[in-house]
Amino acid sequence: MAVGPVLPGNRVKPGRDLTDFMDRLGHDFSDPALLQRALTHSSLSSPTRPDNQRLEFLGDRVLGLVMAEAVLAADREASEGTLAPRFNALVRKETCADVAKSIDLGAAMRLGKSEMSAGGRRRVALLGDAMEAVIAAVYLDAGFVAAKDLVLRLWGERIATVEEDARDAKTALQEWAQARGMAPPAYAEISRSGPDHAPVFRIRVTLENGEHAEAEAKAKRQAEQAAAKDLLGRLE
Is the dihedral of CA 88, 92, 94, 96 positive or negative? Predict the structure, then answer.
């Protein structure tokens, strides 16, 4: 399956950093060029050095299939409505980034100077994208079974404990409000602190009846979820 200029057969000799990452990843690439591409951000790409965006696209689909199988196998009686939030919790960008951090993927990423100085090695979006690209690289290098084994190993206990992670506080709060004839909750950014490469957002959620709560996190979505969870806890 072709994903661009880097194809199996275009062998490169892995450097020490790449070799160390393969050890952390637990997959010895037959074609290290695939991994090299998976770790290359668009800020460093060139006609002869393609970035990982096409691999990310493929890896997202491979991850999705593996996780769909996993949640089905874990609960053979669950309905689609129960399985969907579990699946979403396992494949969302924050989870991919968390897995990437567990193998120190950020240290192996190939970034341009501007992205590197902006803290790109710690950014959730970049880490999540690169994790998906690495999954695709393993798939192209060794096939679906190898990619599946990698994903199940790296995601590990997250699959068994996904029920707790799948609880979407924002959705639950909206359903609570609508069941009582209220308008959907309103979310507002109260403040943003910290450096540009690692901001901290403070979000307030407010209900039509005036009830509100605030929370902070390194991503707006996480802060919204935390605020909704806090407010739900008080309402219930």
Answer: positive
Q: Which fold is adopted by the domain 16-165?
A: Ribonuclease iii, N-terminal Endonuclease Domain; Chain A (1.10.1520)
pLDDT single digits (tens) 195-213: 887 789 999 999 999 999 9
Structure letter (DSSP) for residue 49: B
Longest CA–CA span in the chain (Å) reads 64
Question: What span, in angstroms and rounded, lies between the C-alpha atoms of 87 and 76?
Answer: 14
Known catalytic residue at 236: no
Active-site annotation holder among 60, 129, 141, 224: 60
- Choosing among 3.30.160.20, 3.20.20.70, 3.30.9.10, 3.40.1790.10, the CATH entry for 169-235 is 3.30.160.20
Q: Is 76 helix (H, G, I), strand (E, B) or coil?
A: coil
Q: Is there a catalytic annotation at residue 132? A: yes
Among 56, 115, 129, 132, the one annotated catalytic? 132
Query: Is there a contact between 49 and 140 (Cβ–Cβ < 8 Å)?
Result: no
How buried is 232 (Cβ within 10 angstroms: 0-12 exposed, 13-18 middle, 19+ buried)?
middle
pTM (2 d.p.): 0.71
Q: What is the rounded average pLDDT of the residues 43-70?
A: 92
Pairing of strands 186-193, 212-217: unpaired
43 or 145, greater pLDDT? 145
User: With contact defined as beta carbons under 8 Å apart, do 140 and 3 qualify?
Assistant: yes
